[in-house]
């Protein structure tokens, strides 16, 4: 195992990469050019968490950590801030927003902490936000953004009272989408599909289910099952495009059964 490095050494490595005589690619990066990597590394960390692999998670967390180090190095070069400023700002925020830990405030549970966190944020930022829905990043994935928007609306009382009301709304939106499909109006179909997805995201939030995570895991299961079908057909010498729907459906069900039994 290599000798352990310190955080300061990591920062200095990045400074050297960006300095004259360092790495040309690293030196030409900007905040804007690095945006895609920040997103990619975040999703790779999530993938490592799903895999339950500590080794993979350790590696991917390192790749993700590189991103704030990189951005701070760029900011330091232009005299805006340093990584020490980033850490100090974060520490101040954590202490300020946890008065029940670093002060004498008492809270009853995690819901009360979330409510108090939002109150402190509002005091910190003043009244510059024009809406209760302000503060949700535009670039969030759509399902995640829908979850956040409906959550913020809920905090000011704009919410359902019971889960069955949200279920009813989902069914209503599904019926309206079906009507739009029957009418053949593409624009209306798109609108109604959006309404249906938003209602489902709202239902997920109401039931404490994350719709983004739920869909991501479903996609993963689809990929595994599809791969099983491909592999089995290949083993049988049948090109997938020549297989019947009955053959593929049978293998799909086998894949589901194997998945439940954790065979693959």
Report what the structure shows.
- The protein has 264 residues and is mainly α.
- It has 3 domains: 7-94, MazG-like (Helix Hairpins, Orthogonal Bundle), CATH 1.10.287.1080; 129-209, MazG-like (Helix Hairpins), CATH 1.10.287.1080; 213-260.
- The chain is 73% helix and 0% strand.
- It has helices at 7-18, 24-27, 31-51, 54-77, 83-96, 99-102, 110-125, 142-155, 163-183, 186-206, 211-235, 245-260.
- Helix 3 (31-51) runs antiparallel to helix 4, helix 8 packs across helix 10 (186-206) and helix 11 crosses helix 12.
- It is globular and about 65 Å long.
- The model has no long low-confidence stretch (mean pLDDT 91).
Highlighted features:
globular; mainly alpha; 264 residues; Helix Hairpins; 12 helices; 3 domains
Q: Residue-averaged pLDDT, rounded?
A: 91
CATH architect. name of the largest domain = Orthogonal Bundle
* Low-pLDDT windows of residues: none
Q: Strand-and-helix sequence, N→C?
A: HHHHHHHHHHHH
* Proportion of helical residues: over 70%
Largest pleated sheet: none
Number of domains: 3
Q: What is the overall silhouette? A: globular
For CATH, the homologous superfamily of the largest domain is named as MazG-like
By CATH, the topology of the largest domain is: Helix Hairpins
Q: Could you name the CATH class of the largest domain?
A: Mainly Alpha
Rg (CA only): 25 Å
**Beta fraction:** under 5%
């Amino acid at each position: 195992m290599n000798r352990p490095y310190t955080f300061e050494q990591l920062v200095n490595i990045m400074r050297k990469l960006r300095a004259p005589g360092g790495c040309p690619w690293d030196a030409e990066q900007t905040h804007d050019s690095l945006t895609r990597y920040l997103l990619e590394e975040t999703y790779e960390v999530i993938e490592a968490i799903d895999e339950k692999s500590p080794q993979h998670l350790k590696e991917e967390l390192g790749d993700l950590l590189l991103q704030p180090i990189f951005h701070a190095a760029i900011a330091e070069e232009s005299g805006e801030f340093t990584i020490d400023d980033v850490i100090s700002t974060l520490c101040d925020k954590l202490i300020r927003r946890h008065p029940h830990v670093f002060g004498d405030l008492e809270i009853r549970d995690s819901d009360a902490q979330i409510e108090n966190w939002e109150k402190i944020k509002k005091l910190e930022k003043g009244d510059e936000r024009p809406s209760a829905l302000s503060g949700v990043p535009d670039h969030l994935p759509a399902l995640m953004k829908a979850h956040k928007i409906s959550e913020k609306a809920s905090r000011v009382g704009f919410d359902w009272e019971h889960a069955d009301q949200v279920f009813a709304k989902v069914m209503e939106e599904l019926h309206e989408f079906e009507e739009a499909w029957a009418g053949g109006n593409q624009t209306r179909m798109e609108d109604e599909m959006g309404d249906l997805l938003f209602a489902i995201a709202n239902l997920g939030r109401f039931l404490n289910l994350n719709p983004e995570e739920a869909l991501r895991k479903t996609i993963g299961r689809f990929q595994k099952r599809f791969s099983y079908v491909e592999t089995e057909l290949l083993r049988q010498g049948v090109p997938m495009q020549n297989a019947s729907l009955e053959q593929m459906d049978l293998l799909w069900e086998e894949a589901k059964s194997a998945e439940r039994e954790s065979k693959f």
